[in-house]
Amino acid sequence: MTAGAPTPDVVLVPVLDGHIWRVEAWLKADHVLRWWNDKDAAKSLLREPARRERQRLICADGEPVGFVQWEPVDLPEWKAWGLDVPDGSLHLDVMIGVEATCGRGVGSAALALLVEELKAHPLIATTSLSNFPCRRAFQKCGFVETEHFYKPGAGRMVLLMHAA
Ligand SMILES: CC(C)(COP(=O)(O)OP(=O)(O)OC[C@H]1O[C@@H](n2cnc3c(N)ncnc32)[C@H](O)[C@@H]1OP(=O)(O)O)[C@@H](O)C(=O)NCCC(=O)NCCS
Q: Coil, strand, or helix at residue 155?
């Protein structure tokens, strides 16, 4: 975290049509592409209005800086990866699109808000073993790393489950 800089006030707001260009630009940013490189799939998620209710924009001190989304887990697909997750699990994704905002506590704060909103469900997340900020941000919000696995195209990953 930037020394001396206070953590901004973080809120989650609905994603509106007018936000999409911004989220698409974030998805092309190098610091996001490094970890979230399925940009065509991510863009199509943004273009499907039915998914909007499972997406939020992250605002920090009133400015849009990032994006969260969640999806019901497709259990057979996860079983094919050798992962056993609870029925009804929701898989969470997060990104801070404004690079200068990374490392200021905003990702962790946004996830904490999302966990509060979704806490009635089993919550899971996955990230690259090498993505230490992401692993730590989820851990700070009550997630526990339960296993490592290999995902074709993505490499060595870690599964995190929220310890409700
Ligand atoms: C991952 C991401 C959401 C985290 O959000 P953030 O606002 O940058 O992170 P935070 O400031 O909340 O801090 C996360 C924690 O990681 C720690 N951290 C940061 N860099 C680290 C590193 N290289 N090694 C270990 N821990 C690290 C921070 O110190 C902090 O922990 P602490 O509060 O105990 O000190 C954000 O960096 C991001 O969107 N990155 C690019 C896209 C991405 O990786 N998305 C996730 C794909 S699964």
A: strand
